[in-house]
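Re: weekly structure request thread

Next one in the queue (148 aa):
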Amino acid sequence: MITIAQRCSSAKVSVNKTIVSEIKSGLLLLVGVQVGDEPIDIKKTVDKISNLRIFGDEKGKMNLSILDTKGSLLVVSQFTLCGDIKKGRRPSFVNAESPKISLKLYENLIADFRDLGIKTLGGVFGEMMDVELVNEGPSTFIINSKEL
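Done, posted below.
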């Protein structure tokens, strides 16, 4: 599972010009589910992101987690993160998991964050979405569950 975590002061997802999810302070998570991802990949990803100290404390030092700040998460499925661009000029998506399995893992990821008490919203799986973000910092982190 590949996740791009972007610290934000606001983020929202729209489908057909209608806002479907919106958060204030927290993280926008773009999530790509790879072939072979399992529940352990969700566990590793949730543990890392929920405890990652990337928010400023009273001295401005990155020392607080999303749990500490009571921030929100906006989780957006993005299979293109699994694209392979090593050969040719068109990405190959053979590393992206099937939509049926990806949807289940995506929903479980959101549920696990919610189980920790983190306000977690999602995009609309499989739809063309417009994602808006005010990246705070900017602060962007790449999390690959296979490397955790």
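The chain has one domain: 2-143. The longest helix spans residues 99-115.
Next request, please.
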